[in-house]
Amino acid sequence: MRGFILGRYNQLMKTIYTFVPSPKHIYPDHPERPGRFDVLKPRLKSFHAESMDATAATREEIASIHDPNLVSALEKVCREEAPGIIDYAPTYVTPSSFEDALLAAGGVISCTRAVVRSDAQNAFAIIRPPGHHAEPDRAMGFCIFNNVAIGARSAIEGGMERVLIIDYDAHHGNGTQAAFLKDERVGFLSVHQYQHGFYPGTGWIEDAPHAKKRIVNVPLPAYAGDQVYEQVVDRVFRSFVESFKPQLIFISVGFDAHWNDPITMLGLSTAGYLMLARKVTSMAEEYCDGKIVFVLEGGYDPTNVANGTEAVFLAATGTGKLEVHDPNPNDEPDCESRIEEVCKWHGFS
Ligand SMILES: [Zn+2]
Fold first, then answer.
1. Measured in angstroms, how far is the CA atom of residue 171 from the centroid of ligand 1?
2. Could you give the dihedral angle defined by the CA atoms of residues 324, 281, 232 and 149, in that order, rounded to the nearest 10 degrees?
3. How far, in Å, is the centroid of ligand 1 from the Cα of 301?
4. What does the CA dihedral 199, 201, 205, 206 come to, rounded to 10 degrees?
5. Which long-range contacts does 322-325 make (Cβ < 8 Å, 24+ apart)?
6. What does the pLDDT read at residue 38?
């Protein structure tokens, strides 16, 4: 007998995903490489989710976030001068990067449309190059176009009035913040490692004083892990979702907050990623009809990327059990007062 997952009102729930591995977007010795998906790829079919082809984003869709001059300059540099480095992070381009970036952004748009139209309950855009550092007028931080921001604009085009983006990549989502500084329809929350010299250097609590309760930053010290993140979710995510009342939630998910990521110093385990995915999925069920779209950002250890992706699918489909056990071996710092400071600044109870 075949079993189905039924949601509230016994509707058939479906989780979809797009997979855009961009094998030709590659640069010698760079951590943001196609090999990030080496462990994930053979496991993708085992998740209880339906694959959907991505369609490349149009120039108009990219221009909903980015300056058209940036778009044409990037196209030119890819066609005429690539491969090469275009910013100090370093961000690189190859002759295929422009098309790869259009397809990555298009993957998010395809997932978003399916969820907005209720063709799917929720979705995961497993794409690269990533997007959350890309600002309206510049590509940066391994990112060409801001995929999640373009997705949020397409949700608004599709009729959503309030969209919330929660970013728990290890780095501050500076590009997403910059894209929506003045857009009241989009809320943004980023939780990230913050200390002197850590990329990109933005994301302090008081970054956007004009947008309290709409642009929320939770800067964390190194080694913050599962316990600290759970407090952040229960105190900050929940208050924000309650006050902003989104109709759709996007998650910029980066697996570089895992304790053994090679380029960061946070402390999440795979169980911590599952806790995060479950809590945001259940908030979406409580506040916005279950509408949630996960969008991949960073994560530079292929095993963490595969395990973290599995955790997202376990939460999104409500099926299966986590087999991975990789607890953080480091002690976590006490972040109570930092979390308190964030809540106070925004007036969250
Ligand atoms: Zn990152």
1. 4
2. 110
3. 12
4. -160
5. 322/270, 322/271, 322/274, 324/270, 324/271, 325/270, 325/271
6. 98
30 is catalytic: no
pLDDT in tens, 262-273: 999 999 999 999
Q: Choose, from 133, 171, 172, 192, the residue flagged as catalytic.
A: 133
Q: Is the predicted pLDDT of residue 110 greater than 90, yes or no? A: yes
- H-state helical runs in the chain: 59-62, 68-80, 97-116, 147-157, 174-179, 226-232, 238-244, 270-287, 302-317, 336-346
Phi and psi (nearest 5°) for 237? -55, -50
pLDDT over 60 (residue 9): no
Angle at 300 between CA 297 and CA 301, to 5 degrees: 130
Q: Using omega within 30 degrees of 0 as the cis cutoff, is the peptide bond preceding 246 cis?
A: no
